[in-house]
Design a protein that fits this description.
The chain has 302 residues and is α/β, with parallel strands linked by helices. The protein has helices at 4-8, 58-82, 93-97, 99-108, 128-146, 164-170, 206-212, 217-234, 248-251, 257-268, 278-288, 290-297; strands at residues 27-35, 87-90, 111-114, 152-153, 175-176, 186-188, 195-197, 240-246, 273-275. It has a single domain (21-42, 50-297), classed as Glycoside hydrolase/deacetylase (TIM Barrel, Alpha-Beta Barrel). Helix 2 (58-82) packs parallel to helix 10 (257-268) and helix 8 packs parallel to helix 10. It is globular and about 50 Å long. It contains 12 helices and 9 strands.
Length: 302
C-alpha cells in the first residue's frame, strides 16, 4: 500500500512557490454542502457496518433524512442571501430520489461533485472491478442529471482503497478532497494523468465541531471567523484556501442557520476574497502552479 506521504511528498510552508490567485485575491473560500443519502437497511459491507447502533437505525436514518426534505433548501437559501455559490458533495442516489435538488443546483450555478452512491455503502474491501463500477455509476448519474461529469471526488463516508486516487485520475477527475494536509492545493502522485488535492476540512466541519465535539453553533460561527482572519492575513504573502464543510441535516436546522449566515456575512464583507468552487480552484492550480510545485518537490529550481 502506498503511504500518504508518498502520494503527495513534503514541501514545507517556508520553502514553496508563492501563490497568487487570478485577480490578486488573498484567499479562496469555498463552501461544501455534503448532501448525503442513507439507506434504512443497507447491505452489510465486508469491513464496516453502515449503522453503528442497530439495524435498522430508524433514529439516525430519519434524522439524516431531514437534510433531504428541509435542510438542503434552508442552506441553499442561506447561501443565496450571502451571494455564494456552493459546491454540492453529493451521494448521487440523491438525484434519482430527489431530482429537484439537481435542478436547484443548476439554476444556482453550483458545482456538483461526487460523494459515492449512498453514504451507507463504503469503498472498503471492494475489488477493483467493484470500485470501478461505483465510480462509473457516479459519473453517469451526475452527467445524466446535470449534463456534465463531476470533476471532484470524496468517497462515501470518506472511505477509499489504495487504488482510488489512481482510478480518479484515470476517469478524468481533477481533484480529491480526501487529504487534509494543506491550506493550499497540492499535487497528488498518481499512475497516469494529474490529480490535485483541494483543501477540505475537518476543523470547520459541522459534523466534527457540532456533532462530534458538541460545540454550539455560535462557537462554530466564531471558529469560521477566526480561521478566516488568520488565513486572510497569511494570504497577503501567499494565497490560501479556506473550506467550510456543512451537512444539511445538521446545519440546516432552524436554530443553527442564523449563526452560519452571520459567519458567512463576515467573510463576504471583506475585499480580496475569491468566493469559488472546488473545480475552479483545481483548474486554476493545474494551469498556474501544478508543474512549478512538482518541480520544487523534485528538488528542481522553480
Amino acid at each position: 500500500m502506498i503511504s500518504h506521504l508518498a502520494r503527495y511528498g513534503y514541501l514545507g510552508a517556508a520553502n514553496r512557490p508563492t501563490l497568487r490567485f487570478p485577480d490578486g485575491q488573498r484567499i479562496a473560500v469555498w463552501i461544501v454542502v455534503n448532501h448525503e443519502v442513507y439507506e434504512l437497511a443497507p447491505p452489510i459491507g465486508p469491513v464496516r457496518q453502515p449503522w453503528p447502533r442497530v439495524h435498522p437505525d430508524i433514529l439516525a436514518y430519519s434524522h439524516r433524512d431531514y437534510g433531504n426534505r428541509i435542510g438542503i433548501w434552508r442552506l441553499m437559501e442561506a447561501l443565496d442571501r450571502c451571494g455564494i455559490r456552493g459546491s454540492l458533495n453529493v451521494n448521487v442516489a440523491a438525484f434519482d430520489h430527489f431530482p429537484e435538488i439537481a435542478e436547484a443546483c443548476v439554476s444556482r450555478g453550483w458545482e456538483v461533485f461526487s460523494h459515492g452512491v449512498y453514504n451507507s455503502r463504503f469503498l472498503y474491501g471492494l475489488s477493483e472491478s467493484q470500485e470501478r463500477a461505483v465510480i462509473e455509476d457516479c459519473i453517469e448519474t451526475i452527467s445524466r442529471h446535470l449534463g456534465r461529469p463531476p470533476r471532484g471526488w470524496m468517497g462515501p463516508m470518506g472511505t477509499m482503497t489504495p487504488r482510488t486516487l489512481d482510478l480518479l485520475s484515470e476517469y478524468g477527475f481533477l481533484y480529491t478532497v480526501e487529504l487534509f494536509h494543506e491550506d493550499v492545493p497540492f499535487p497528488v502522485k498518481v499512475k497516469t494523468g494529474r490529480l490535485v488535492s483541494v483543501p477540505y476540512t475537518q476543523e470547520l466541519n459541522d459534523i466534527s465541531v457540532i456533532g462530534g465535539a458538541g460545540h454550539t453553533p455560535a462557537v462554530y460561527a466564531r471558529m469560521i471567523q477566526d480561521q478566516f482572519d488568520r488565513l486572510y492575513l497569511e494570504g497577503e504573502a501567499s494565497a490560501t484556501v479556506m473550506c467550510i464543510a456543512l451537512h444539511p441535516f445538521l446545519m440546516g436546522q432552524p436554530h443553527r442557520i442564523r449563526h452560519l449566515e452571520k459567519a458567512l456575512a463576515y467573510v463576504v464583507g471583506h475585499d480580496d476574497v475569491w468566493l469559488t468552487t472546488g473545480e475552479e480552484i483545481a483548474r486554476w492550480y493545474l494551469e498556474s502552479y501544478y508543474d512549478t510545485v512538482v518541480r520544487a518537490l523534485q528538488g528542481e529550481e522553480s
